[in-house]
Amino acid sequence: MQVTVRYFAQLKERFGKEEEKVVLQEGATSLDLLRNLLPDPKEFEQTSSYLRVAVNESMGSLQHPLHDGDQVVFMTPVAGG
Amino acid sequence: MHSDLEKRCYVTAQPISAATVETAMVDPASGAVFLFVGKVRNHHAGREVVGITYEAYQSMAEKVLDAIATKAREKFAVHEIRIVHRIGYLKVGEVSVCVAVSAAHRQEAFMAAHYCIEELKREVPIWKKEHYAVGESRWLGVPVDA
Q1: What ipTM was predicted for this assembly?
Q2: What are the residue ranges spanned by the domains of chain B?
Q3: Which residue of A has its CA nearest to B117?
Q4: What confidence tier does B141 reach under pLDDT thresholds 50, 70, 90?
Q5: Domains of chain A
Q6: I need a surface site. Which of A7, A17, B65, B136 has the fewest CB within 10 A?
Q7: How far is B86 from B66, CA to CA, in rounded Å?
């Protein structure tokens, strides 16, 4: 399956892009996707500890399986206002 | 032009006029309109701030703002709620957010507006990067050692 990852704020700067398509194995979760995007185990551990995920514009769980065509946004702590 | 005035909750790159937001709330049954205006402040945690860049996951942010307003209307006896959040680079003193609530009586309007701004800060996918007088910038909310 293929999902679209969009990046905002700190993560947009970290990845140097606004979005990308990623091919994943069936049943992969957002956490699997994040591990794929952050191959360095230390960075993965550190970053996954404070990120939340939105799938198709709704808050989701990092452990929840993704589906083909999903739009995934990893979110650093929000700071509006 | 974005039909911003048609929407009650939205994110915009245009300067926010709190007066315009308030004027759009026309309801003879409302005896109170509470207007909260958030502005860019010139300091944070002891550092001099010269501006803030706001970035939003706009489509989701507007959905979440709508959901917050809907929830507030369920919890409090209010008539209308409008929430507008700015994105882009804002200088000190510019309006970053405006929450306007109309109600028959002031107490419910105060409480609903308070609820909306607190929920906004917790839930809406908007991020801010502070720019300091010394030349550095930092995204807020991200752990410092990350």
Answers
A1: 0.95
A2: 4-139
A3: A81
A4: confident
A5: 2-75 (3.10.20.30)
A6: B136
A7: 16
Compare CB distances from A75 to B38, B125, B128 and report the shortest one's residue.
Answer: B125
Average pLDDT, stretch B54-59? Answer: 98
C-alpha distances in Å from residue B81, one per residue of B8, B22, B108, B146:
7, 10, 12, 37
CATH of domain B4-139: 3.90.1170.40
* Residue numbers of A between 55 and 74 with CB closer than 8 Å to B: 57-58, 73
Nearest Cα residue in chain B from A73? B57
Task: Tell me the two tokens of residue B14.
Answer: 């245009």
Give the tens place of pLDDT for each residue, B86-99. Answer: 999 999 999 999 99
Buried b / exposed e along B5-40 (16+ C-beta atoms within 10 A): eebbbbbbeeebebeebbeebeeeebebbbbbebeb
| Contacts with A75 from chain B: Cβ below 8 Å | 57, 125
What tokens does B137 get? 């910038």
Chain A, nearest residue to B58 by Cα? A57
Cα(A51)–Cα(A74) distance, integer angstroms:
6
Transcribe A15-68 into DSSP letters: HTSSEEEEE--TT-BHHHHHHHH--SHHHHHHHHTT-EEEETTEEE-TTSBP-T
